[in-house]
Design goal:
The longest helix is centred in the N-terminal third of the chain and has 16 residues. 38% of the residues lie in helices and 9% in strands. Helix 4 runs antiparallel to helix 11 and helix 8 crosses helix 10. With 281 residues, the protein is of the alpha+beta class.
C-alpha cells in the first residue's frame, strides 16, 4: 500500500515541510488567488513532462487547470458553457444562485485521484499484458518510490486497462458536487412519491435516501426530481467523451469523513474549486 511505503511517507513529510503540498495533500494556491502551484499528488510527487506526454495533456491544459479556467479534459470555452448550462438546468433563470453551491471533485479538478486510488503497479497489471507494456513504456526503470502514489487523470484509460468484468476502463469521470437544501427537499418529495408508488428498486431501498457510505442523495430520486440535470449530464458526456457525474448534498455540503475509514473526504475546504454562475453579457 502506498500509504505504508516509507519512501512515500518521507516524500510527503518533506513536501509538506517545504510547502509543496498542504496537510490535505493539495498544492498551494487557491481559486481566490487565481492560480495554484504545479500539480503534485498527496505525497508530493511532482508531475513530469513524461507524465503529460503519456496522458496526452499539453502545457496549455495544465495552465488552464492551474488558473481554474478549465478542469482537465475541457477547454475554457467548454467549461464556461458547462457552467452556464448547469445553472440553467438547476434553477432556470437563477434568481437565487446562492441556493446552489457547485464544486468540482475528482482528478479533473485535482489532477490526481484521492488516496483510495493508488498508482498501478506491474504486479497489479500482470494479467493485462497491454496495460503492463504501456506502464513500462511510461515509467521505464523508475523505482516504485519515485513514481506517483496516486492515479493521475485518465491513467487507467490511457493504459488500456480493463476492469473486473473485462471491460475497457473508460476515461475519468468529471465529478460535480451540488449542495442545495432546496434541491434536497424536492428530491425527498420525489423519493416519497416513488416509494409509495412502489417504483423504487430493492437496491434503492437498501441504500436509502442518503447513501450510508458517501452521503449523497439517492441518484434515482435526483434523476426523477431533476430531469433537466440528468439531460445536462448526458449532453456533456457526449460532448466531452467522458461521464459527467453530478451528486447532490445538503447546503452544508458532504460531511467531514477525514477521520473515518480511508480518510478520503470531500467536505468543504478553502482549496475547493467552486463553480460560479458566469456573468451575463
Amino acid at each position: 500500500m502506498a500509504d505504508e511505503d516509507p519512501g512515500y511517507l518521507k516524500r510527503r513529510q518533506e513536501s509538506q515541510a517545504k510547502g509543496f503540498i498542504d496537510s490535505d495533500g493539495r498544492v498551494p494556491g487557491s481559486q481566490r488567488e487565481g492560480i495554484r502551484a504545479w500539480p503534485r499528488d498527496d505525497t508530493g510527487y511532482r508531475v513530469q513532462p513524461r507524465d503529460l506526454a503519456f496522458l496526452g495533456l499539453t502545457w496549455q491544459q495544465v495552465d488552464w487547470w492551474r488558473r481554474y479556467q478549465a478542469p482537465l479534459g475541457t477547454t475554457p470555452r467548454q467549461f464556461k458553457d458547462m457552467s452556464s448550462s448547469l445553472f440553467k438546468a438547476l434553477c432556470s433563470g437563477c434568481e437565487r444562485p446562492k441556493d446552489y453551491d457547485v464544486r468540482l471533485h475528482g482528478s479533473w479538478a485535482f489532477f490526481f485521484s484521492g488516496g483510495h486510488k493508488n498508482f498501478p503497479t506491474e504486479r497489479e497489471l500482470a494479467g493485462q499484458p497491454l496495460a503492463l507494456e504501456k506502464l513500462r513504456e511510461w515509467m521505464g526503470s523508475t523505482p516504485a518510490g519515485e513514481r506517483p502514489a496516486r492515479r493521475p487523470f485518465d491513467t487507467l484509460h490511457k493504459l488500456g486497462a480493463v476492469d473486473e468484468n473485462g471491460m475497457a476502463v473508460a476515461p475519468s469521470d468529471g465529478d460535480v458536487h451540488i449542495s442545495s437544501d432546496v434541491m434536497v427537499t424536492a428530491a425527498r418529495k420525489k423519493w416519497d412519491e416513488l416509494k409509495n408508488a412502489g417504483k423504487l428498486t430493492d437496491e434503492d431501498i437498501r441504500k436509502g435516501f442518503i447513501h450510508q457510505k458517501y452521503s449523497f442523495i439517492n441518484r434515482t430520486a435526483v434523476r426523477e426530481a431533476f430531469p433537466k440535470l440528468a439531460k445536462w449530464a448526458a449532453m456533456w458526456k457526449e460532448r466531452l467523451g467522458r461521464a459527467v457525474a453530478p451528486s447532490l448534498f445538503p447546503s452544508s455540503g458532504p460531511p467531514n469523513k477525514s477521520q473515518v475509514g480511508n480518510g478520503v473526504s470531500t467536505h468543504f475546504r478553502d482549496t475547493d474549486w467552486v463553480v460560479a454562475l458566469p456573468p451575463k453579457h
